[in-house]
Amino acid sequence: MDKIYVVYWSQTGNTQAMAEAMGKGIAAAGKEAAVVFVGDASLEELKKAKCFALGCPAMGAEVLEEVEMEPFVNEVECFVAGKTVALFGSYGWGDGQWMRDWVERMNGCGANVLNGEGLMCQDMPDGDALAECEAVGRQLAML
């Protein structure tokens, strides 16, 4: 069974809920989902993967979390060319600039960002947002 990684950072649990919903979608499509907090994620496993998902909420002035996620994403940028990546996260303020910046970064490194944009929800994901996350998980599983 193919394993698809969903790596996330979450402070309040909102982005974690999105990650878990993606994992549910991956499993529903018949693949193994590995939903992993960024501190426990393996860059070596992602290097071998043809697709994976990365999730992080908007922090501060609409940036990625700076202690764990930002350094991890910096490493991913070194090998993401040619891979399909789903980006996702929640926000409580702003207009999603952190996600647009993240998509631009990944595209600039040669990644194929799934659906051409990141998946965002404001605050705690509701039923519709969780259904969207599951759908993205199913999309990843079909690649």
What do you see in this structure?
This protein is an alpha/beta fold and 143 residues long. The protein has one domain (3-141): Rossmann fold, CATH 3.40.50. The protein is built from 5 helices and 6 strands. Strands 1, 2, 3, 4, 5 and 6 form a 6-stranded parallel β-sheet that branches. α4 links the parallel β4 and β5. It is globular and about 35 Å long. It starts with a strand and ends with a helix. 43% of the residues are buried.
User: Structural class, from secondary structure content?
Assistant: alpha/beta
Cα distance, first to last residue? Answer: 14 Å
Question: Roughly how much helix do the residues carry, as a percent range?
Answer: 25-40%
H/E series, N to C?
A: EHEHEHEHEEH
When the domains are counted, the total is 1
Q: What name does CATH use for the topology? A: Rossmann fold
> How many distinct helices?
5
Based on CA atoms alone, the radius of gyration comes out at 13 Å
Shape: globular
Give the CATH superfamily.
Answer: Flavodoxin domain
Averaged pLDDT, please? 96
Q: Unreliable segments (pLDDT under 50, ≥5 consecutive)? A: none
Largest sheet: 6 strands, parallel
CATH architecture: 3-Layer(aba) Sandwich
**DSSP strand tally:** 6
Please report which band the strand proportion falls in: under 5%, 5-15%, 15-25%, 25-35%, 35-45% or over 45%: 15-25%
Note the main attributes of this structure.
six-stranded parallel beta sheet; 5 helices; alpha/beta; 143 residues; Rossmann fold; globular; single chain
Quick overview:
The protein is of the alpha/beta class and 143 residues long.
